[in-house]
Amino acid sequence: MTEIHPTAIVDPGAQLGEGVSVGPYSIIHEGVELGDGCEVLSHVVLDGRTEIGPNCRIYPFASIGSQPQDMKYHGESSTLVIGANNIFREHVTVNPGTEGGGMITAIGNNCLFMMSSHVAHDSQVGNHVIMANNATLAGHVTVDDYAIIGGLSAVHQFCRIGRHAMVGGMSGVENDVIPYGSVMGDRARLSGLNIVGLKRRGFSRTDITALRKAYRLMFAEEGTMSERLEDVVESFSDHEAIMEIVNFIRSDSSRAICQPKAEQGG
């Protein structure tokens, strides 16, 4: 049974699934679709062409689906698509896409967006992603499954954050972060592999040992990155996680790869 508080405003053009609850003073605009079992607490604003999957929980003062913070946006009918079982804590903001970015912002399933985190226009967020307090994604950012963005961190436009990667708190990410990598710093640099995260996700000791060996090869001082990747492929071509890193580095991107401090020029 859907429950709407008397002080809430729900536009007749909004679509609410079974078992949805809408708390005091929340506003749901025309075009919003809420899946079954969603819980919208007090003082929430849902706007735009926004689809939210089942069993999401949205906390007070979150603003989901409002117009992008992009000067190039001119009112085009873009969308925001959110999957199931996501949690949006207080003051979280998520914006839809723009014409310059494919017209869609997308979030997968089972993600946690902590207080005041922000997902900008045209970003693509996978499943089981955690964004800690005040973490922010600029436009056109891709965050793959199980990545964690630490508190007070900011990710530059068009960056990619690989699967199982960890961005340390208060980091400024200007370049792509490899899958399984860990970065930190005011201008984030690669600090190694996300070993703690890998152990928590059940990766075996054998897999972690192989990843460590491949990592040392990839970021050794000798040779070019292309040459080192060839060495990694020769030794680990049958290892799925390692080849995922290789393919990530080799794929087209407008950003460079975050590398260890020792790899940076003076």
Describe the 3D structure.
The protein is of the alpha/beta class and 266 residues long. The chain has two domains: 3-140, UDP N-Acetylglucosamine Acyltransferase, domain 1; 199-263, Udp N-acetylglucosamine O-acyltransferase, C-terminal domain (Udp N-acetylglucosamine O-acyltransferase, Domain 2, Up-down Bundle). It is built from four helices and 28 strands. α2 runs antiparallel to α3 (225-236). The longest helix is centred in the C-terminal third of the chain and has 14 residues, at 205-218. The chain is elongated, with a radius of gyration of 20 Å. The N and C termini lie far apart (63 Å). The mean pLDDT is 97.
Secondary structure topology:
Elements lengths: L2 E2 L4 E2 L4 E2 L4 E2 L4 E2 L4 E2 L4 E2 L4 E2 L2 E4 L4 E2 L4 E2 L14 E4 L4 E2 L4 E2 L9 E4 L4 E2 L4 E2 L4 E2 L4 E2 L4 E2 L4 E2 L4 E2 L4 E2 L4 E2 L4 E2 L4 E2 L7 E4 L4 E5 L1 H6 L4 H14 L6 H12 L3 H11 L16
Helix pairs in contact: 2-3
